[in-house]
Amino acid sequence: MEKDLISREDKERLLLKVQRHLSDEVKTEFGRFEVETLVDLVARLVGPHYYNKGLRDAQALLARQIDPINDAFYEMERLPEA
Predict the structure, then answer these.
(1) DSSP 8-state class, residue 30
(2) Rounded-to-5 percentages of helix, strand, coil across the chain
(3) pTM: predicted TM-score of the whole model, two decimal places
(4) For 23-50, what is each residue's pLDDT tens digit?
(5) Any residues with CB less than 8 A from the CB of 32 and at least 6 apart, and which?
């Protein structure tokens, strides 16, 4: 079972913001059900892109932090005597 990724309070604020935006920009009133359906659809379609981008960014950050450590280990290596 997947835990909710957004708190109930945060989701409620998001839904209100989207509902207000649609009302102001599109001049159309949408009910809570329609707005929640729209937000869920956008999350399913776009969410994985941003999630994967976040993973790639985290991997790159970790690699930048690990590279100097790997270099230090390499410098510590000893060659066998001839």
Answers:
(1) -
(2) 80, 0, 20
(3) 0.67
(4) 999 999 999 999 999 999 999 999 999 9
(5) 15, 19
